[in-house]
Amino acid sequence: MAASVIRSQVHDIEKNKMQYSKVSLSLENCILPSEKLSPTPSQLDGLDPDAEAELRILGCELIQTSGILLRLPQVAMATGQVLFQRFFYSKSFVRQPMEVVAMACITLASKIEEAPRRIRDVINVFHHIKQVRSGKTIHPLILDQNYINLKNQVIKAERRVLKELGFCVHVKHPHKDRWMKTTDFLNVSALTQLEI
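Structure (tokenized):
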């Protein structure tokens, strides 16, 4: 009698594990539903759609430039840009600081793609980009209370991005598969040439 009860409980536990332990991401369920695309939270807060598009582009440019300066792989930069876009389809540019969120996204993406960079390095790179874009002479970032406050903002923004995305930060890049196939092809071509 007791053995059958135990077997039944074990079966129920295994059944629940199968039901709740799997996160399934594919190209069909990673695309945002149309009701989230328009109107966006930023538009609901009164931001002009053209201004929002410019902020989205600027954020992605900052992530790309910072990734190059941080010597991150392209996949990490693309992941940071996807996280940035996903975040701002659920939060408003009016209520969230775009530059701080971009810093958080590139920091988080570097961890996801196993090329981690320190927050200090990310902040220094963004400071450098800002100086170059404004045409100012380049000075190093002073480690004062403003730096500490900015670092804490980036840490909080990283947590906010993770929370808003439900810790679902897997990004399936279409170009990653192409790159793998191309490198496999080049490796096979190189081997066949060596054999000839």
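The mean pLDDT is 83. The CA atoms of residues 157 and 163 lie 10 Å apart.
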